[in-house]
Design goal:
This protein is an alpha+beta fold. The protein has two domains: 2-89 and 192-300, no CATH class; 110-183, no CATH class. 56% of the residues lie in helices and 19% in strands. Strands 1-2-3-4-5 form a five-stranded antiparallel beta sheet, with no helix packed on it. Helix 5 runs parallel beside helix 8. The protein is elongated. It starts with a helix and ends with a helix. The model has no long low-confidence stretch (mean pLDDT 87).
């Protein structure tokens, strides 16, 4: 389930990494062509700006379509499935990793000790300390299973319960068979409270309820569109820094990603504060990098 949850969250990361990867790939590709004087040879053969720009735009456009699929469909659906898995994991509490003759205190408020472990759910000579109830339970045989509702079901045989009362006295109860349902966590349903995890249809339904919903909806288009801008930017940088090659591509990409994210979160804060129109705010980083891409494009070609 942990592996599934990680896979479900992958689209959330791919929305960010697809534009970054597009820029890095284009920069390395054109940087290699430029360092090997292939760009010069192509120009000498009559290749113009269109010859270099068209495949870059096609590549960036493909990345843009993939990014849209992630942001509009796969990311919200993956997040819902991931949260569903987290809810299930929170409710499937168990002590199956308990080892013989070792104290097990991974369950909050409880300590377990078993002399012998027959299986993941069956034990012999079990001692259970319930800290919250100030009690100790011993049993010759114990079966402990997850309740499926954030708790443990305990079927105990031939044992006793020793409790500390409020007056400081101990009480002892012997039993032949004792069943205990011990809830450990709140069983409330997990809910989607973050706009980043909402379905696109829910964002549209809440479009007029706050600036954050407008920003998030606009962001789901602007971030994938950054792949086109980053591709052109990467092409221009790769040709411009023709001697740097791969050694410059990675640090430049990291710097661009860092600056882009700083601009993005600044724009988001300004949008939420009401200083900028939310729909426009999501496009501010793209506008700034589009201007930079155009400047380097004109110098490189």
């Amino acid at each position: 389930m942990i592996i599934q949850t990680i896979i479900f969250y992958l689209p959330s990361f791919l929305v960010i990494t697809i534009p970054t990867s597009a820029m890095l790939a284009v920069m390395i590709g054109y940087g290699r062509l430029s360092s090997d004087s292939e760009i010069t040879a192509m120009r000498a053969g009559g290749a113009g700006k269109r010859f270099f720009t068209l495949p870059t735009l096609i590549f960036g456009g493909t990345a843009f379509v993939l990014g849209l699929m992630m942001s509009f469909w796969l990311m919200p659906h993956g997040s819902l499935n991931a949260i569903s898995n987290i809810s299930k994991m929170a409710k499937l509490v168990s002590i199956k990793d308990l080892k013989e003759k070792e104290l097990y205190d991974q369950i909050p408020g409880m300590v377990f000790y078993a002399v012998k472990k027959n299986s993941d759910a069956e034990y012999e000579n079990m001692i259970i300390i319930e800290k919250n109830r100030n009690s100790v339970i011993t049993s010759s045989k114990a079966q402990i299973l997850p309740s499926g509702n954030a708790g443990l079901l305990m079927n105990l045989e031939n044992g006793r319960i020793i409790s500390l009362n409020k007056d400081g006295k101990h009480s002892t109860v012997n039993f032949k068979s004792f069943k205990l349902n011990s809830p450990l966590l709140e069983t409330e349903e997990f809910t989607i409270r973050s706009e980043r995890l909402m379905k696109t249809s829910d964002l549209i339904a809440n479009f007029g309820n706050g600036s954050i919903y407008k920003f998030e909806l606009s962001k789901r288009i602007s971030m994938p569109f950054a792949a086109i801008i980053m591709s052109v930017f990467g092409m221009s940088l790769g040709i411009f820094f023709h001697r740097g090659g791969r050694s410059l591509a990675i640090p430049i990409t990291i710097a661009v990603v860092a600056i882009y994210n700083i601009l993005f979160f600044t724009s988001q804060n300004l949008a939420v504060s009401g200083f900028i129109e939310p729909i426009l705010a999501a496009w501010i980083p793209n506008i700034i990098f589009a201007v930079l891409a155009l400047l380097f494009y004109r110098r490189a070609l």
